Amino acid sequence: MFTGIVEELGEVTAVETLDDACRFRLRGPVVTEGARHGDSIAVNGVCLTVVDHEGDEFTADVMAETLNRSSLGVLAVGSRVNLERPTAVGARLGGHIVQGHVDGTGEILERKPSEHWEIVKISLPADLARYVVEKGSITVDGISLTVVDAGPDFFTVSLIPTTLALTTLGLKQPGDPVNLEVDVIAKYVERLLGTQGGTK
Fold this sequence. Notes:
Layout: E1 8-17, E2 21-27, E3 40-43, E4 46-54, E5 57-63, H1 64-69, E6 80-84, E7 104-113, E8 118-123, E9 137-140, E10 143-150, E11 154-159, H2 161-166, E12 177-182, H3 184-199
Antiparallel strand pairs: 1-2, 1-6, 2-5, 3-4, 3-6, 4-5, 7-8, 7-12, 8-11, 9-10, 9-12, 10-11
């Protein structure tokens, strides 16, 4: 489990394309400290497994399902990525409960800079819109954010200078894809209410 508090801005150093998968090598001095084979690291919000680790780099395999559901397929050598290690039991939950299981992708639609923050508008797939509410939580490229406005096919978030400086959202422009993970609690509530309704 993750919290959506990005630990560092890493970089893709190699990409190996396979028949139905992809292998990435990524640099991240913070997240690789003490890393071992089989550990989990979130890359732009996608929970990946460390296959190999050497120095400040690690490799991870990405299967076709993940490539199809997320924006990892557009990564290339030199791409910057948000990196986060799983939260430790007993640690502070600084963001919200993030599984690293991407629900779909959105697209940066618009950026409105202000003196002390920036409003970013992001497209929202129709099948995810019901889980996104004003002042609720959403994960964008692995970043735990609060929804400012929620529309039928978009939402907005307000980014502070720290988020702009230390994550990929400071770099992405209109037209760029982002990974989205909605609040898992909303999905469980929907499922439970649906089940109850069906048994009455």
